[in-house]
Design brief:
single chain; mainly alpha; two-stranded antiparallel sheet; 4 helices; globular
Amino acid sequence: MKSLGNLLWFIFGGCLSGLSWCLAGLLWSITIVGIPIGRQCFKFARMSFFPFGKHIEYGGGAMSLLVNVIWLIVSGIPLALEHLATGAALCVTIIGIPFGLQQFKLAKLALMPFGARILED
């Protein structure tokens, strides 16, 4: 069931979400200081392409909080708004609700990506 969900997800919005994370990763990787943030974006792009069967565990310390604040100002808000808008549009139909919930999960991740870990179900 995960494979079918991921395939449908990729077709109906996952590709756009993953490409958004990749673009953010590329922009962060332009500078040497931003490369660690860009690498984290590419990890979450992979999760954004195929989110079914995965969940996110949040944690971290003071350094994660500092990087999350910088991330939120520079890249987090646009990505979160994209995921919220797509999720709301998908939740209009009953069939789209599971996909919309995945978008909301990714919106939360877009606001606080550092200190988060992706775990398999």
